[in-house]
Amino acid sequence: MIIVAVRIxxxxxxxxxxxxxxxxxxxxxxxxxxxxxxHIMFQWNKMYGMSLDLPDPICVIDIDILLINDYLELxxxxxxxxxxxxxxxxxxxxxNPKYKINGGFFKYYPKDCKYIYDKFMKDPLYWQKxxxxxxxxxxxxxxxxxxxxxxxxxxxxxxxLPNEWVCRMVNEDFFDNKDMYDSWLISNNIKYNKxxxxxxxxxxxxxxxxxxxxxYAHSLNKPM
Length: 224
Known about the structure:
The two termini are 25 Å apart. The chain has 2 domains: 2-160, Spore Coat Polysaccharide Biosynthesis Protein SpsA, Chain A (Alpha-Beta Complex), CATH 3.90.550.10; 168-216, no CATH class. Helices cover 28% and strands 21% of the residues. 31% of the residues are buried. It is globular, with a radius of gyration of 17 Å. It has 224 residues and is α/β, with parallel strands linked by helices.
């Protein structure tokens, strides 16, 4: 299994690499520590995986994640040619209901996605601002998951991982006070229950047993 992940700059320490390598000791990691071209920013460098000349599928992950319970099922999730596997964003990364995925986990055949890489590389400066300018997301650097979703739907069959397998989480100190954190947690427990029928997402410092990947987003909100 080949896994592509980006760690550029000092936002996240090398501990994040160590954590993922320890969780996935049989995987071959391709770490992107420098931009693939000077003007390509941070997470947009994940597009590199789509340029690889490999016959088998690869996984592309964010590093601000926790892998828990039977998380290997994520990486072993079955895929066929002309399919693209992504984790769902049931919590809502954007107010635009058109978009369904989160960029924290992809699985695909690189050869099936070369057209997406080529499309991006023809005008990366344009695409890196496109989803910020149209209000889908906020800056200064964002939008790669929406670019991928739009592009996948041009040619490929988009498949989502089960909703109950993934969730978004925040640290308590990410909020101004505990009441705000408690309100956020209650809201997301309710959302998770409605979409999965599981009783809770996170309760008494425990994640529900079905959850395999926990995504911590935003530069100030870190899992470690």
